[in-house]
Amino acid sequence: MHYKRNFDECHHNKTSQSNPTEMKNKGKNIVIRKASGETEYFDAEKLLRSLQQAGADRILAESILGEVERDLFDGMKTKLIYTMAFRMLRRKNRRHAMHYRLKRSLFDFGQTGFPFEHFIGEIFKKRGYRVEVGKIIQGHCISHEVDVIAVNAAEQIFIECKYGVDQGKYVSVQVPLYVRSRMDDIIRLRKELPENAGVKFTGGIATNTRFSDDSVDFGKCSGLMLLGWDYPAGYGLKEIIERDQVYPITLLEHLSSKQKSVLVEKGIVTCSQLFEQLNVIEEFRLSPVKAQNLVDELRDILNK
User: Fold this and answer.
1) If you compute the radius of gyration of the chain from its CA atoms, what whole number of angstroms results?
2) Could you report how far apart the first and last alpha carbons of the chain are, in Å?
3) Strand, coil or helix: what is 31?
4) Can you name the residues that pair with 77 across neighbouring β-strands?
5) What's the CA gap between 155 and 223, in Å, rounded?
6) How does pLDDT run across 70-110, given as a tens digit for each residue?
7) What does the pLDDT look like over 259-291, one tens digit per residue?
8) How many domains are contained in the chain?
9) How many CB atoms are located within 10 Å of the residue 13 CB?
10) Which of 15, 16, 100, 167 has the fewest CB atoms lying closer than 10 Å?
11) Pick from 235, 203, 236: nearest CA to 218
12) Residue 169 class from Cβ within 10 Å (0-12 exposed, 13-18 middle, 19+ buried)?
């Protein structure tokens, strides 16, 4: 069997609409391949939940599921399934499609953690903190490289970023155990400085994936701030991004991957940053139509 079918090939010959329940039964024995190379059975309810979490109602979500399941085949990659569902949702509602893409857009930052560190920095800038990224600072015993330092008059926050390229991965408890000891060394010295009298110090970890149960328990017990995709409940990255409109530039459809990489190298990792510095796209030599499409997309994302 050949596994090189693309989206357009999958939709070249469409069959008639089927009952959603029948479609879920059709897909339940299909083995799909994750980005990590691992295989698992296709989970129709999981796809339905992700579509509904993006804002699609049950009827629309089941309609998209039915279309997706018609084209499933053994060995199909989850990325292709996601792309199919996204394009179907986009035809119905661009705003819902954007929310559906949101989580994956963080994985599209690439293989290194550099863009994610700057992205976390932008979240804290939005909240009024002065931010430094990738700084070496002195602790009581040794010096430490800290991914993100966020400071205001009342608080200093030191954050270790753990960027994952596979959304199925979890941050294990070894990470917060290690980070807690580093943060304690930094905070011990900072507390000794007279200019920091009355300042609150916080150490933390930010990840685009999730934390293991042990990591969460240790974070709560030790006072380590944890920020993940959906943790803490109601205040995770997903909610922060949408609430504060800190949308990653990897959401944009009217820029190529290469163009996004150029922007990231300039420290531009959010749509807000790009909207405020639109002159930087001049080097891309976009046609007037493409440039306007990009501006319109930014306005749509940012509700401008």
Assistant:
1) 22
2) 48
3) strand
4) 33
5) 15
6) 989 999 988 888 888 888 888 888 778 877 888 889 988 98
7) 999 999 999 999 999 999 999 999 999 999 999
8) 3
9) 8
10) 16
11) 203
12) middle
Same domain assignment for residues 229 and 264: no
Among 92, 124, 154, identify where a domain stops.
92
CATH code of 188's domain: 3.40.1350.10
In which residue are the tokens 């599209």 written?
108
Residues of the chain by 3-state class (helix, strand, coil), percent to 5: 50, 15, 30
Exposed (0-12), middle (13-18) or buried (19+): which is 275, by Cβ within 10 Å?
middle
Token pair of 3 as six digits:
């596994």
Taking 90 as the threshold, does the pLDDT of residue 216 lie above it? yes
In which residue are the tokens 């399941």 written?
69
Provide the domain limits for residue 212: 114-244
Two structure tokens written together for 53: 């979490």
Question: Do residues 87 and 121 share a domain?
Answer: no
Q: What is the Cα–Cα distance from 221 to 241, expressed in whole angstroms?
A: 27
Residue 202 phi/psi, 5-degree rounding, is -135, 135
